[in-house]
Structure prediction request, 157 residues.
Amino acid sequence: METTRHFVATCYVVHDGATLLHEHEKLRMWLPPGGHVDRDELPHEAALRETFEETGLRPDLVAEAGPYDTDQVESLPRPAAFLLEDIDVHDDGCVAHQHVDFVYFAESDGRTIEPVGRDEAAADAWEWFTSTALEARADELAADVRDLGKRAIETVG
Prediction:
């Protein structure tokens, strides 16, 4: 069986010591904003676009770019993590669909959630998690979501 892979981008948005998550209806897990990288986008652009569509927020990425800027090359913001995620696993263990995920951290200047995209989760579906809340609700959160959420909070400071 051939595995289909899609490029996606995720953004852990932080404001005042907390990061933003919602319980994804289809995947049935808590996740930050994110989604598929469009054909004409760079990963960091997709992370910011998806964040805006899903939350109405326009955060600033907290990401360094490499030292390679010339007439021919431009360094892009480095993701905080680069993950391969199994999305569709069959009973026989074969993986049919995976996401190649560029994970970024970003800082928001506010917490007001006003989704602007189509078919987005309602504003009240989103919740701000402090590091303490991430730990307290560890049984509800995937380990990578909990750990990256805490790293994002720590990084943004």
User: Anything to note?
Assistant: Residues 143-156 form the longest helix (14 residues). The mean pLDDT is 94. The beta strands are 4-15, 18-24, 29-31, 34-36, 60-61, 81-89, 95-107, 126-130.
